[in-house]
Specification:
Blueprint: E1 19-25, E2 28-29, E3 33-35, H1 47-50, E4 54-56, E5 59-63, E6 69-72, H2 74-87, H3 95-108, E7 121-130, E8 143-152, E9 163-168, H4 185-200, E10 206-209, E11 217-220, E12 223-229, E13 232-236, H5 245-256, E14 260-264, E15 276-281, E16 285-294, E17 300-302, H6 311-325, E18 335-338
Parallel strand pairs: 9-10, 9-16, 13-14
Antiparallel strand pairs: 1-2, 1-3, 1-8, 4-7, 5-6, 5-7, 6-18, 7-8, 10-11, 11-12, 12-13, 12-15, 15-16, 16-17
Helix pairs in contact: 5-6
Bound molecules: pyridoxal-5'-phosphate (PLP).
Length: about 350
């Protein structure tokens, strides 16, 4: 076993032993290759470097009490990467290839999968890039798909404790009919300035509004937004947010728990009436939002007065984590056990 302090792992890059790669050339995908290098050798005119032909996924492998390794809803990640590829005209990774490479990357680095009980997991990063050269703005003719992994701890240092996020109005994450709905790097480049400024101003992340009217909530940088009110789970519906698999799962669990699920436009004024709020995604699962501060107006919306997460958010978080780690029955068939 590696000498890793599993309980204090940050959410960050961690070097492991192997990654796996596959190249798309002459109209077809080649054989899967295993590499120990952290570097990619590519053409200087590769489209991923110049014109942003790049898409990625983020998923986790969890080790259960029984020692078994579990993947959570990998098909959804494979499908979403397919939509991302279609959205920016990249070669699509067949679902079977996606799965085979994810499993291979996980198994080759098995000693880096955190043992049960530390709140840690193995983060999996599939990456699809245009590697063929172009100088005119055109899609590449060659692509590389790779998967690398690394053990991670909680995304926010606060863990499952409420964070304060900043509502920004002078930046948009994605254009109304742009690429916000697919997981491409360009969306993140556009979000860096606002996120970095927020950090300097004391906020771990921002909440973006829908760009056209600035009336409705879109999402937090790398996570979807949800709120709880009167036994309803409320989450924004917008063409410019990334459909989070965590959010999709929480909607189902909320329904299972007898809550109403409302996926609709969520106006900023509604924030005043919400009992709980949170940001959700693979990295943090749920980050309870204790307070939102509107950077422009200074208005504050408070969802947690005692510094603790709300009861419904806590219940949803525990339920989802229990399924992911294999502590509770996987009634929706979300989990793939690797053997
Ligand atoms: C990846 C991502 C999320 C979270 O999606 P999950 O599938 O739950 O991990 C949310 N918003 C954005 C912008 C993302 O890129």
């Amino acid at each position: 076993m590696e000498n890793i302090n599993w309980s204090t792992l940050p959410f960050g890059y961690f070097k492991t032993d192997y990654n796996v790669r596959c190249y798309y050339r002459n109209g077809k995908w080649g054989l899967i290759e295993t590499s120990s290098s952290e570097y990619i050798n590519m053409h200087m005119a590769a489209t991923c470097l110049h014109y942003g032909q790049e898409a990625f996924e983020g998923m986790k492998a969890y080790r259960g009490k029984d020692g078994k390794i579990r993947l959570f809803r990998w098909e959804e990640n494979a499908k979403r990467m397919g939509r991302s590829a279609d959205g920016i005209l990249m070669a699509k990774v067949p679902q079977e290839l996606f799965y085979e490479m994810v499993v291979k990357a996980v198994k080759l680095n098995e000693k880096y999968i955190p043992p049960y009980g530390h709140g840690a997991a193995l983060y999996i990063r599939p990456l699809l890039i245009g590697t063929g050269p172009q100088i005119g703005v055109k899609p590449a003719e060659e692509y590389m798909f790779m998967v690398f992994v690394g053990p991670v701890g909680p995304y926010f240092k606060e863990g499952f404790n409420p964070v304060t996020l900043q509502i920004v109005r002078d930046f948009d994450r994605a254009a109304p009919q742009g690429t916000g709905h697919i997981k491409v790097g360009g969306n993140y480049a556009g979000s860096l300035f606002a996120a970095n400024r927020a950090k300097e101003e004391g906020f771990p992340a921002v909440l973006f509004l829908e760009a056209k009217e600035k009336k409705y909530i879109d999402e937090a940088g790398p996570a979807n937004f949800f709120a709880i009110k009167n036994n309803s789970y409320i989450t924004p519906k917008s063409d410019s947010i990334l459909p989070s698999i965590t959010n999709m799962s929480l909607m189902q669990l909320a329904e299972d728990m007898g809550m109403n699920v409302e996926r609709r436009k969520v106006a900023v004024e509604e924030l005043d009436g919400f009992e709980e709020a949170g940001a959700c995604g693979t990295a943090a699962i749920i980050s309870p939002i204790g307070k939102l501060v509107d950077r422009e107006t200074g208005k504050e919306y408070v969802f947690s007065k005692d510094g603790k997460a709300g009861t419904k958010s806590t219940k949803l978080y525990n339920k989802l984590q229990a399924i992911q780690y294999g502590d509770e029955p996987d009634t929706h068939n979300w989990v793939t056990i690797l053997d």
